[in-house]
Amino acid sequence: MSIALRVEGVSKQYRIYDRPSDRLKETLTRGLLKRHREFWALRDVSFEVERGTTVGIIGPNGCGKSTLLQIIAGTLEPTHGRVWRDGRVSALLELGAGFNPEFTGIENIFMSAALMGFSRAETERLLPAIERFAEIGDFIHQPVKTYSSGMYVRLAFAVAVSVDPQILLVDEALAVGDAIFQHRCMRRIREMQERGTTILFVSHDPAAVRHLCSRAILLNDGKIMADGDPRETLSVYRRLILDREEHYDSDQTDRDSIAAASFSSPSLRYVRRHGDGSAQIINLEVLNSAHVPVTVVETGEEILIRAHVHFNRDIVKPVFGFIIINRHGVHVYGTNTEQQGTDLHLVRQGSIVEVTFSFNCWLGTDIYSISFAVHSSALSAKPTAYDWVDGAAFIRITSPILIEGLVNLNATATARVISSTNHLQAEQRCLKTI
Ligand SMILES: Nc1ncnc2c1ncn2[C@@H]1O[C@H](COP(=O)(O)OP(=O)(O)OP(=O)(O)O)[C@@H](O)[C@H]1O
After folding, report:
1. How far is the CA of 67 from the centre of ligand 1 (A)?
2. Is the pLDDT of residue 393 over 80?
3. Locate the ABC transporter domain: which residues (predicted)?
């Protein structure tokens, strides 16, 4: 087992001052007049992380997650203990951490890269990829204090993933990005997992922890309360929350994180696309039963996925299909015209084909992207994608009731009392007599 990261007996003490003037008084009296209370945000935290694994860090507000991540990133000194890391660490910390608000986006990129040991020439080579990933246009030349939180996190994430780190630390700031960006981030995180990057992922989103992490650590009051399989750790977390009688539980957190993600109108400009160009998907819409475009759909509602495809050459038996993908890259449902027995024998060059799939959308609550493709038959000797667009549209599924899991199986429930206490006592008396 190769270790990428070791946290040894880390504790962090903060000094709490009730008023700003108390700090001044204490400084002026060189500490003779003690005006602070001591507060331990972390107490004797130790763990190791195996190289190439993804570990989730969860816990209630104020339990020390961000403090721990900052100490691992090296931006905060522990009061006791130490951290050993093997390889370049790049961190997407809480909003506000990391960038200088007065510097422009470009200046902050150079500053962050320099802190990670990159030369100016190396950073210049990274710039186009960072700009492309962040996609904040000319704002990259403006001071970051003028950025919205979404733009800030786009730039911070773009920098964090473009420097090819061996260890990536991600604080939950990702929830701020819009749906398109969240999908892009999740895809990039998965690519990095495949390349063997070690990832520490702080999140309040149980679904994200379940899908991304092979292990989860629960922090509570600055101490490790559980460490192991994500499902087991999440269930300890759920019990903790219930015990504390807080106003939310982890399912609510699921819903909060979905609600927090603002929705952008879909645009084919922003998506991943491939194909040999024999046909071109011109547009894709999600419509409700009244044929009105929608981005928010209630689970079970009838929807139509409608695309218009232009043909640049004659094509025999083109197949049109879609896949619905959740935030974690899980293909939740997909079908195509070949499977549905809808056959267009020959489509002539210059034609535009309208394709419509309609169904009742029994998905669980989440944000989904829709990939749409036109391709040759899966049975053909050399299957070819004519045009394939990932993230062609985005929908958010809502539900009036809580739904656990990926799909809504629309269960019904019945319950009835089949034995009253009196019957039970009578039965017990009979049993004793026997
Ligand atoms: N600079 C500071 N000075 C004093 N106390 C601090 C400071 N930074 C954090 N704390 C306290 O330390 C504790 C842990 O904070 P931290 O931000 O690490 O928690 P967290 O688990 O990330 O919380 P959240 O889920 O709300 O982001 C909190 O009680 C917080 O108020």
Report:
1. 6
2. yes
3. 5-246
